[in-house]
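Re: your question from the hallway

Yes, I did run it. Sequences:
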Amino acid sequence: MARAVAILKRRENVAPGHYLLELSCPEIARSAEPGQFVHLRVGDGTDPLLRRPFSVMLTRPSAGEVQVLVRTVGRGTELIADHEVGTRYDLLGPLGHGWRLPEATENVMLVAGGVGVAPLIFLADHLRTAEPKPYVRAIFGGATEDALACWTEFASRCEEFTAVTEDGTAGETGMATDVLASEIERDRPDRVYACGPDAMLVVVAGICRQAEVAMQASMEQWMGCGVGACLGCAIPAAGGGYVRVCTEGPVFAAEEIDWERMTPR
Amino acid sequence: MTGSSPDLSVEIAGIRMKNPVMSASGTLGYGTEYEPYLDLSALGAMVTKAVTLEPREGNRPPRVRETPAGMLNAIGLQNPGAEAFIEEKLPEMRRFGVPVIANISGRSIEEFATLAEMLSVEGVDGLEVNISCPNVEEEGMYFGVDCELTGELTAAVVAATELPVIVKLSPNVTDICAIARAATEAGADALSLVNTLVGMSIDVEARRPHLGNITGGLSGPAIRPVAVRMVWEVAREVDIPIIGMGGIMAAGHALEFILAGATAVAVGTANFVEPATMQQVIDGLASYCRRHGVSRITELVGALEID
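Structure:
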């Protein structure tokens, strides 16, 4: 972890409300591992005040490039959506603990919900050249087609790919978690990697526990410092207490989290 | 004096600091979290996250929420407890060679006194008594909004330790000067002000509070004018040193507090935004002194000019 300056090289509106930022940032391009994040300062002013955390979606170390996927959800991300090429960002990163990679030739399943696809694209990209090479299947779910940003980047890096939308505007109709359950039934994976809304992750965790499939999840929470000091980004830990998304996470083994207390009210 | 290095050193109740810039409690972890981003040995002093007698889990999430030019937090005093602090965290903090001030919080006067005694160990240079945490029921602020309780609590802590006792005041009161007087008369060696202002933010789509705790403490630039005003008022009432804090992001902001009467300042929320803020404030104070021909920063304490 360190700090770095990133320069916006390209900004693409990849889906309604979703922006792909291509940043020139050699330090982070070199050092980021799949599942880690950067803490980005949106501007020099005091509103918005806090940094914004974004999972790294892809890196191209030789070109010094880092990609992040931004969904506009509030003031900070809306400002980013308007930033012009050449904008300089102050970053802390790469931060946190990323995905723990398979140790043997495994059959792995990636489950993405909406903008949660970003750290899974990085993982899928990494697994393409991993030794031993796992067999990678992926499920990408969203409410509508608009929520499946960067699906081609995801699909092209996996051996099997299923898109699913709640309204049927793209891929199958239904929930990513339904597809997961039937895929486990058809051909049980050795490991599931998931990132998406809490409601999805809670169900994925339940399915994996029942099927006795190892699972890792990349978690999200409102964040303060990003470096473990403020204890703001706490989520419920298995066995009581809390863990920090920024430091112990953002990727956790399913057994580390108290999914009961994670369940959205 | 221009050209030579100004003397930034200050003394708070016997705690000698090479400059007046400290971390605000709970915003620098135990120091190690910020080691990659900041030379912690350059600070005037470090203040710990609140230490309680027993370990605390903290509040249910979400615990933080950004607000205009500020943030709400309701961490709930999560910490490993006094014993683990002394054994595990304190030695880490000592490595930086700057004074360590332990912030303490308790549920009763007896608990505060026990903590003060426990933390009176080699390596702790002072105690900051948190009588103003807004996020835990019947704790902290419960004491800090009442003159009589503030006095009793302060006296009990002072009696339990030889260390300098700094009482951290709540801004969530009608008359902060009355509370400041009560703490001073009970033997406080210095005052910290201000803690966070109680606030609230609502998700209108979900019709739910943004924070798991419903309310939280507001910090950041949004509260700076309130904090400066309170430091100015209290500085005219008491003759013990004041540590001023609330939304300091730059040297100019620190100088507002100093001119209003603070001997030292603490940087809090800004550490999350820019980890190098404290170093920038220290450098900025030195350059202000050079620019204004000030040889010692203490000349500026309370130097506000009013017609």
